[in-house]
Design a protein that fits this description.
Helix content is about 40%, strand content about 20%. With about 350 residues, it is α/β, with parallel strands linked by helices. The two termini are about 35 Å apart. Bound molecules: nicotinamide-adenine-dinucleotide (NAD) and uridine-diphosphate-N-acetylglucosamine.
Length: about 350
């Protein structure tokens, strides 16, 4: 039996595929390469010594999915495929709802047709919206998202919850990522955003490598100790291992449900529980790499929250997972990737 990874050529997907292969799983990837490169598959092979089966296909393409399910016995699907740029989602809401929502509906439909009812989904802390109380736990209320991308995540969560309620054979795990950064310690795979990066770390590494002149720092007048926003940055390898632990839990549940145990909907925060401000990340990057990052103050970015960090105790208690890398290693590995690949996979 194989694990189907949608979006497995992408940033988080490729790191998860590496951990799955190293843990002995057979992996099948479906990716339309709309935001990734085939080269990442080659790099996965270099790291693991194994080539995952790769289908260059769109998850909206029912026929393609049907062929894959017919050809391969799939035990579980880890679903990363989706569009994820917040600003772009404001410009192109139709494209975001169409790709993310219809993609998930199509995938889930083909899964159930083929009797595959184990799913791990890439959600985001964005579903909490703007909360007063920190840290965020899975019991925190869901909030109002500030952009269409965020709404697609909230809607996909709801769709999957309802499907699991209606058919208790489903095991659904919703993983709410905080801020994934860093890269595989080998420096062979990492984040390769198209165009100007939207997120902090890739922007910093592109300044460091000389592709961009300076970082714009979005606001220093927030109600935080140094006035800049606080986030829970998590190493992408830790995040990848979180998926492995979620998969193991689903496997246990599948065995137990044969013995009448209740099937599951699991919701887990994947974060470190530590918040760092933008200025602390800039300083942390310099400490880890010796490279100064020039920055200029810019106005606040619309939709930004002052503070967001996780309580990830539930993932520890129920999945046996916790983050192990610190901010120093996250910055060092992000730089290792960027300096070895100044133009990403190109
Ligand atoms: P990514 O863009 O690197 O990976 C997504 C992959 O999905 C890409 O390889 C892309 O080509 C593919 N894809 C998109 N639409 C597809 C479709 N219709 N059919 C087939 N393939 C398709 O992004 P990532 O950072 O690795 O994110 C993975 C998932 O995690 C996404 O769902 C994203 O929303 C979610 N997430 C990411 C972050 C983050 O900060 N990176 C935070 C929270 C949640
Ligand atoms: C953003 C998205 C979130 C998404 C996440 C990962 C918003 C409002 N939220 O989170 O939905 O899940 O990316 O894709 O966009 N910063 C700068 N200069 C920069 C870039 C960022 O100062 O050039 C600051 C931001 O203001 C923020 C912090 O750095 O305070 C982190 O930003 P970013 O990496 O974009 O992540 P989030 O905003 O937390």
């Amino acid at each position: 039996m194989a694990v189907l990874v949608t979006g497995g050529a992408g940033y988080i997907g490729s790191h998860t595929v590496v951990e799955l292969i190293l843990a002995g799983y057979d992996v099948v990837i479906v990716d339309n390469l709309s935001n990734s490169s085939r080269e990442s598959i080659e790099r996965i092979k270099t790291i693991t010594g194994k080539t995952p089966e790769f289908y260059h296909a769109d998850i909206l393409d029912r026929k393609a999915l049907r062929e894959i399910f017919a050809k391969t016995e799939i035990s579980c699907c880890i679903h990363f495929a989706g569009l994820k740029a917040v600003g772009e989602s404001v410009e192109k809401p139709w494209e975001y709802y169409h790709n993310n929502i219809l993609g998930t509906l199509t995938l889930v439909d083909e899964m159930r047709r083929h009797g595959v009812k184990n799913l791990i989904f890439s959600s985001s802390a964005t579903v909490y919206g703007d909360q007063e109380t920190m840290p965020l736990t899975e019991a925190s209320p869901l909030g109002t998202c500030s952009n269409p991308y965020g709404f697609t995540k909230a809607m996909q969560e709801q769709i999957l919850r309802d499907i699991q309620t209606a058919d208790r054979e489903w095991n659904v795990t919703l993983l709410r990522y905080f801020n994934p950064i860093g890269a595989h310690p080998s420096g062979l795979i990492g984040e390769d955003p198209r165009g100007i990066p939207n997120n902090l770390l890739p922007y910093i590494t592109q300044v460091a490598v000389g592709r961009l002149p300076h970082l714009g720092l979005f606001g220093d007048d927030y109600d935080t100790p140094d006035g800049t926003c606080i986030r829970d940055y998590i190493h992408v390898v830790d995040l990848a291992i979180g998926h492995l632990m979620a998969l193991r839990r689903i496997e246990e549940q599948t065995e137990q449900s044969a013995l009448q145990s209740a099937p599951q909907l699991g919701v887990y925060n994947l974060g470190t529980g530590n918040g760092y401000s933008v200025l602390e990340v800039i300083a942390g990057f310099t400490k880890a790499t010796g490279i100064e990052i020039p920055w200029v103050l810019k106005p606040r970015r619309s939709g930004d929250l002052a503070v967001s960090y996780a309580n990830a105790d539930k993932a520890w208690t129920e999945l046996g997972w916790e983050a192990t890398y610190d901010i120093h290693q996250m910055c060092a590995h992000a730089w290792n990737w960027q300096s070895k690949n100044p133009n990403g996979y190109e």
